[in-house]
Design goal:
heterotrimer, A mainly alpha (304), B alpha+beta (430), C mainly alpha (295), A: 304 residues, mainly alpha, MetI-like fold, disordered N terminus, C: 295 residues
Chain lengths: 304, 430, 295
């Protein structure tokens, strides 16, 4: 903690040294855990401790896919989180536009409500949420069983069920990301001049045409930001799949990782680290893309 | 979204065709690698005998996580057709919740019934007099002690006569060897262990040996309950048992898998499986010549006597909402067969509930288990009542307070009684 | 007249395209929040007779809360967790990083990328990594570091459980603090610093007299945002300690989960959840007011 002001050329190098030392320490704190996962995942004899592998191998990764259902976990995670992200982008794109352009009485209350919804802890909602999904699921299940029986019904419910089905998890994951996405899109459209739309209106374009021809192309950067944040947050979510999924066919990466870790008698760190690394990568990549939006998004609140 | 729907529809149609072609499916819940292995031959046998497909659904391994998932699904109505409960303590509550189908008639009519030990049959009877679970395995616990360590220090290895004799022995061990003298599982993170592997074994030898009253309620105010907590209190306060590891996650790892093999803990309660898995031929950290180095005592009564308390180990039941109840019950009887019992005994080290297992050649090879199986004839048991799972949690909380030296025996009993009353209501608890 | 019917139509259309979002939020957030208040007045359970026939029990769950030492413990633990990780840990390290990274240092991009990295790690992975860092025994990373300084190693998650989850959550959140505070710093005009330096103020004076006061609104907002999001942390603590040992890390979200899904008392769990909801809402309202949103 030496110089809090801006850099001045030609000043002494000592503060710089201190700055490098401090930043190096903080960076080491941030980076060391990642080293362990990376090294352990490539180590034929991985331990719980950070160590340089004596034999380098990709075997741990191979085993994730060959011995365990790794491919299915990856597919499930990508499918569920990908679908939720798409849904968020569509809904937030439309909703954000509406929130930006409307002058109706509900604009203000709705925006306040969104901010408040964001602060509700998901754990506090999970029991009633589960019961609601359960009711929906039972109604749906009975409907499905009118048409088809037993195993077929179960197979169908795996896709469209609200509990232990893809659809339920996708909808809930998407809903949890909606407030932030709506906020991002609303702010984004606020920054877009209305001239283009008005030109389109003059040309006699309908609302849908306006959205498709004018707004979607213009909104792409905003949608990218909203989508990336939705993806990162949904990708990292653990609670909802923990509560909502049980069939092995539907397991996602966080559950696969957590359950593999719980097999107390056979903790296989190389395998776990490989799985963790696979689970980590998409989030890091998405985060890399999202970086340039970070400042706008987080500081959105600050600037008001 | 369109694409999603399309992919979904395709897959639904595909899987619909795929499943239509198949035979009927029975879904079985299982958890833990050993349990899954133990069921492998049975699954194959069932598929062959009844021409059905058996789908084994793997659940999270620790009992607590398993129960969370299973109960959530039972509540949701999408649980498997057949599943097990980790211990007897959960059964009465699951019956009260309406999750289990009655199997009494089928069980009694089944040809394997006659050869079951009485204690197993009794344990399977729920408070309402009906049977809901297949009591195919018994969990039998005793005190396992390091004979080598005791002999070397010149301490008697005789069966302790009563509680005070047992406590004196533990104190003597501590004094002469420096090792911890005796461990009873305690605390919240051991799950139902505090109740299943400690508390109830002492309780059956106390002045008030049962918790369930005639009318199916719970009486936790007995003098015996306080006295049992008194034993814990003494072990903890005199530093005769390790307490720090019990407060962490996986509390059994350090005392059972490190301290005991190293001789830093000289006696602990343990199940019949311990000779094989914890310290024997299947262990990662075995004690050489374990059957000689480690001896067993049965748990003495408060004023003398010896008590072999039997518990049901992983009793299996049928989902009340199973689509084909008939078939599910038939499958359940298959799980009760001697073959499956022996397979479980070999994989997990529990004791077959059928006397006929003694004649089974594969079982005779499990020399560590044979004498314990024979002793099950004299097994005693706790009469079951709804709310036992709550009692187990209450005991865990009470012993946790003892571990943290926050209370005394009477205080621990108050914690248990208050907890049970709060959860079950005043009318269910005396 | 034509104009006004046109506007009415547009208003209807705007509401229409917002309605799917509205529907989802009502179905899966607002209704559950209201429903949890109802649940908290029942003895709803996952097993036992109450699972079959749940009853309305009035305020019994709440009167039980008042006497439940574990509940008060979880409030205290949550408070310490929020103060330790969000208000102190993340803030201090985030502020230092933000200030240092404003300078033209070499490897500036590298440093900031590394500091951002933990933010990308999913909760379960973060927990898994830190189980390794904090393991017991002399080979674990933290133990090796303290041994280098001549101190005795220990089983960190056992001996200092709460401190350790604070450290891990700090690790995860430095980036958020850094980003927000960087944004706040950039709103201070450079001339102010220049002028101060001309007047001969030293760096610590500049920090105390200029940087901090001008940053106060940003800092306040940051504190509210991070407090609220720290109350909601679940997966990280669940993966690391599950609330143990002996409730030492049982933050409120873990306590809700444990009551609902390991003690199977959904009604009682809901009562705890309502308390958590109220606390979060109060902080949320403070946040909305502090933001002075011009929506």
């Amino acid at each position: 903690m030496t110089d809090f002001a801006l850099d001045k050329p030609g000043k002494s190098r000592r503060p710089d040294l201190m700055a490098y030392a401090t930043l190096s320490l903080i960076s080491a704190f941030c980076a060391v855990p990642f080293f362990w996962v990376l090294l352990a995942s490539l180590d034929g004899n991985a331990q719980l401790f950070l160590s340089w592998p004596r034999e380098w191998t990709l075997n741990n990764y191979v085993r994730v896919f060959a011995e365990e259902d790794g491919a299915r976990w990856v597919f499930n995670s990508l499918f569920v989180v990908g679908s939720a992200t798409l849904l968020v982008m569509v809904l937030a794109g439309l909703g954000g536009y509406a929130l930006s352009r409307t002058r109706a009485w509900w604009k203000q209350p709705f925006l306040y409500a969104i901010l408040l919804i964001r602060v509700l802890p998901p754990t506090a909602l999970v029991v009633p949420l589960y019961k609601i999904l359960l009711t929906l699921n039972n109604i749906e299940g009975n409907l499905v069983r009118i048409f088809v029986g037993g195993d077929t019904a179960r197979a169908i419910m795996r896709w469209i069920g609200f509990i232990d089905g893809y659809l339920g998890l996708i909808l809930v994951l998407a809903t949890m990301q909606l407030p932030l996405a709506l906020w991002i899109m609303k702010t984004f459209f606020d920054g877009l001049p209305r001239d283009y739309e008005e030109a389109a209106v003059m040309d006699g374009a309908t609302m849908l045409q306006r959205i498709r021809r004018v707004l979607i192309p213009l909104a792409l950067p905003g949608l990218a930001a909203a989508g990336l944040f939705a993806f990162i947050s949904a990708w990292g979510d653990f609670l909802l799949p923990l509560i909502l999924l049980s069939s092995p066919e539907l397991q996602t990466l966080p559950l696969g990782l957590f359950r593999a870790f719980l097999r107390v008698n056979t903790i296989d760190y190389g395998f776990l680290a490989a799985l963790a690394f696979i689970y980590l990568m998409p989030a890091v990549i998405a985060f890399g893309f999202a970086r340039r939006f970070l400042v706008q998004t987080f500081s959105g609140g600050v600037k008001g | 979204m369109n694409k999603t729907v399309l992919v979904g529809l395709c897959a639904v149609t595909l899987s619909a065709f795929a499943t239509l072609a198949q035979a009927e499916t029975i879904r079985i819940a299982n958890h833990g690698q050993a349990g899954i292995n133990a069921m492998k031959s049975t699954v194959a046998r069932i598929e062959k005998k009844y021409g059905v497909t058996v789908e084994v659904v793997e659940y999270p391994s620790p009992d607590k996580d398993y129960m969370t998932k299973l109960l959530t699904e039972l509540g949701a109505g999408n649980a498997p057709d057949i599943f097990s409960a980790p211990t007897t303590a959960y059964v009465a509550d699951m019956v009260a919740a309406g999750y289990l189908a009655p199997i009494g008639a089928e069980f009694k009519a089944w040809d394997g019934y006659a050869s079951f030990y009485d204690v197993a049959k009794q344990l399977a009877v729920s408070p309402d007099g009906e049977t809901y679970v297949m009591p195919f395995m018994l969990g039998i616990q005793e005190i396992y002690f390091r004979r080598d360590v005791l002999e070397k220090a010149g301490i008697s290895t005789e069966q302790p006569k009563d509680w005070s004799d047992l406590l004196k022995r533990a104190a003597e061990i501590k004094e002469k060897t420096g090792a911890y003298g005796l461990l009873f599982p305690a605390g919240v993170s051991w799950g139902t262990g505090a109740f299943d592997e400690g508390f109830q074994h002492l309780l059956v030898g106390s002045k008030t040996p049962q918790l369930a009253t005639e009318d199916g309620k719970l009486d936790l105010t007995g003098e015996g309950v306080k006295d049992v907590f008194g034993v814990y209190k003494e072990l903890i306060d005199k530093d005769l048992m390790p307490t720090q590891p019990l407060l962490g996650p996986e509390p059994w790892v350090i005392p059972k898998y490190q301290m005991f093999p190293e001789g830093k803990l000289a006696a602990t309660t343990c199940g019949s499986w311990c000779y094989i898995f914890d310290w024997g031929r299947e262990s990662k950290n075995p004690i050489p010549d374990v059957e000689k180095a480690v001896g067993t005592w049965t748990i003495p009564g408060q004023a003398g006597g010896q008590y072999v308390l039997a518990n049901l180990a992983a009793p299996w039941g049928v989902n009340a909402k199973a689509e084909n109840l008939e078939l599910a019950k038939k499958v359940l009887m298959e799980i009760g067969s001697v073959e499956t019992q022996v397979s479980y005994a070999a994989e997990i080290g529990n004791i077959p509930a059928s006397k006929a297992a003694a004649q089974d050649q594969a079982f005779q090879k499990l020399t560590e288990l044979v004498p314990i199986h024979a002793a099950a004839e004299n097994g005693v048991y706790l009469k079951q009542a709804a709310g036992f799972a709550t009692v187990a949690e209450g005991v865990a909380r009470a012993t946790e307070a003892l571990l943290r030296k926050e209370t005394d025996a009477a205080g621990a009993q108050t914690i248990l009684v208050d907890y049970a009353r709060e959860i079950l209501g005043d009318d269910a608890v005396k | 007249m034509v104009r006004s019917t046109y506007e009415k139509r547009v208003a209807r259309q705007l509401l229409l395209i917002l309605s799917p979002s509205l529907l989802l939020l009502i179905a899966f957030v607002i209704y559950p929040a209201v429903y949890s208040v109802y649940l908290s007045f029942t003895n709803e359970a996952l097993t036992g007779a109450a699972a079959l026939n749940p009853r309305f029990v009035g305020l019994r769950n709440y009167s039980r809360l008042l006497h439940d030492a574990k509940f008060w413990n979880s409030l205290l633990v949550t408070f310490l967790f929020v103060v330790g990780s969000a208000i102190i840990g993340q803030f201090v390290l985030g502020l230092i990083s933000a200030i240092l990274l404003r300078r033209n240092l070499a490897f500036k991009q590298l440093f900031s990328s590394i500091i951002l990295l933990p933010n990308a790690a999913p909760e379960v992975v973060a927990g898994f990594m830190w189980i390794s860092m904090l393991a017991g025994g002399e080979n674990a990373t933290l133990s090796r570091i303290v041994m280098f300084f001549g101190m005795t190693p220990t089983d960190w998650l056992q001996t200092f459980p709460l401190t350790m989850i604070i450290v891990v959550n700090t690790w995860r959140g430095i980036a958020t603090a850094m980003i927000l505070l960087t944004a706040g710093l950039s709103t201070i005009p450079k001339e102010v610093f220049e002028a101060a330096r001309m007047d001969g103020a030293n760096p610590s004076q500049i920090f105390r007299r200029i940087t901090l006061p001008l940053m106060m609104p940003t800092i306040l907002l940051y504190m509210l945002i991070s407090a609220v999001s720290t109350i909601a942390v679940f997966g990280l603590v669940y993966a690391l300690t599950r609330g143990g040992p002996g409730g030492a890390t049982e933050v409120i979200s873990i306590y809700i989960y444990n009551q609902s899904f390991t003690a199977f008392q959904l009604g009682y769990g809901a009562a705890v959840a309502v308390v958590a909801l109220v606390i979060s809402l109060v902080l949320g309202i403070a946040y909305v007011r502090a933001m002075k949103v011009q929506v």
